[in-house]
Design brief:
This protein is an all-alpha fold. It contains 15 helices and no strands.
Length: 312
C-alpha cells in the first residue's frame, strides 16, 4: 500500500495548477473591456443621432421654413432664417381663394371624426361577428375580406367614382365616409378580430347562462374590454383621414369643401407666383392636431399593441 507521502506527491502531480493572474493584469483586462464597451456605446449613439437627424430634418426644415419669406425658402438651404416673422401664419389663417383656414380645418375635422366614429362602430360589430358568432361561410367571408387588403385602391377608384357620380354624390362627403360606416376597412376589422380572439370565451358563456344575447354581450362585455383596440383603430383612422389627399382630390371640386391637404396645393401655382411660406405655415398648423391626438392617446396605442400577444 502506498504511504501518505506517496499519495500526496501523486495527487500534487496529477492536478496541475493553472496560470495565475496578477492584480495588475486583472485591472488592465478590466480597463480594456471597459474601453471597448465605451467605444461601442459612443459609436452606437453617434449612428443613432445621425439617423435621427436624417429622419427629423424634413420636419425641422418645414418648421423653420414657416418663418422664412418665400424667396428664402426656394433659394436658401440654411435652417436658420435671416428675417424670421409670423407673416406666413397670418396669410395661412386668412386662407386662399376666398376660403379661410378654419373652413379647411373644419372640413378635415368632419372627415377625420366621421372616419373614427364609422370605423369604431362598424368594424367592431363586424369583428364580433367574425370572432364570436358561428355562421355558414364565416371563414370564406373572412378570407375574402382579408383579400381586399391586397387590392390596390387605384384599381377600384374609377368604378367607384362612376357609381357615386350617377348617384349625384360627388362634391359631398358621402363617398369619403360611407365605406367607414359599412366596415369596408378590412385592416381595422382584422385588428379587432385578432383582439377579440384573445379574450376568454368563458365570459360569453357566463353571460349566456344569465340570459344575455349577442347585443348585450357585445355592449356590456366586449366593448369595455376592447378599449385598447378601439383607441388604436381610432388613432390610425384619424391620422389616415386627416392626411388623406387623393380621396378628397377625386371627389371634391368646390374649394369650400376642401380638406387641409388639398388646400395646401392651392398655394402652389405653376403659372403664377407660388406662396411657399404660407404653404409651410399651413402645413405646420395642420400637423398640430395630429400630434395632439397622438400624444393624448399614445399610451392606449402601446397597450393595444402589447396585448396582441397575450392569451386569455
Amino acid at each position: 500500500m502506498p504511504t501518505g507521502s506517496t499519495v500526496a506527491s501523486v495527487s500534487s502531480t496529477a492536478v496541475p495548477s493553472g496560470p495565475t493572474v496578477t492584480v495588475e493584469e486583472s485591472a488592465r483586462l478590466h480597463r480594456r473591456h471597459r474601453n471597448r464597451t465605451n467605444v461601442r456605446s459612443v459609436v452606437f449613439h453617434v449612428l443613432a443621432l445621425a439617423l435621427v437627424v436624417v429622419i427629423l430634418y424634413p420636419a425641422v426644415w418645414m418648421l423653420v421654413s414657416a418663418f422664412k419669406p418665400t424667396a428664402d425658402i426656394v433659394g436658401n438651404v440654411s435652417l436658420i432664417p435671416k428675417d424670421a416673422s409670423f407673416d406666413n401664419f397670418a396669410k395661412a389663417l386668412q386662407g386662399i381663394g376666398g376660403v379661410s383656414f378654419w373652413r379647411f380645418f373644419t372640413n378635415s375635422l368632419i372627415l377625420a371624426l366621421g372616419s373614427v366614429i364609422g370605423i369604431t362602430l362598424s368594424c367592431s360589430v363586424s369583428a364580433y361577428a367574425f370572432a364570436r358568432i358561428e355562421f355558414p361561410g364565416r371563414n370564406v367571408f373572412f378570407a375574402l375580406m382579408i383579400g381586399t387588403l391586397l387590392l390596390p385602391f387605384h384599381v377600384v377608384i374609377i368604378p367607384q367614382y362612376i357609381v357615386f357620380s350617377r348617384l349625384h354624390l360627388v362634391d359631398t362627403y358621402v363617398p369619403l365616409l360611407i365605406g367607414k360606416f359599412l366596415a369596408a376597412e378590412a385592416f381595422f376589422v382584422f385588428l379587432m378580430v385578432q383582439f377579440m380572439r384573445n379574450l376568454p370565451r368563458e365570459l360569453d358563456e357566463a353571460a349566456r347562462i344569465d340570459g344575455a344575447g349577442h347585443v348585450r354581450i357585445f355592449r356590456s362585455i366586449m366593448l369595455p374590454l376592447m378599449k385598447p383596440a378601439l383607441v388604436t383603430s381610432s388613432i390610425f383612422a384619424f391620422i389616415w383621414s386627416w392626411n388623406d389627399f387623393f380621396g378628397p382630390l377625386i371627389y371634391l371640386s368646390k374649394p369650400n369643401l376642401y380638406s387641409l391637404p388639398v388646400a395646401l396645393r392651392l398655394f402652389v401655382d405653376q403659372t403664377t407666383t407660388s406662396d411657399y411660406g404660407a404653404q409651410m405655415a399651413m402645413a405646420v398648423l395642420a400637423l398640430v392636431p395630429v400630434l395632439l391626438f397622438f400624444l393624448i392617446f399614445q399610451r392606449y396605442l402601446v397597450e393595444g399593441v402589447a396585448t396582441q400577444g397575450l392569451k386569455g
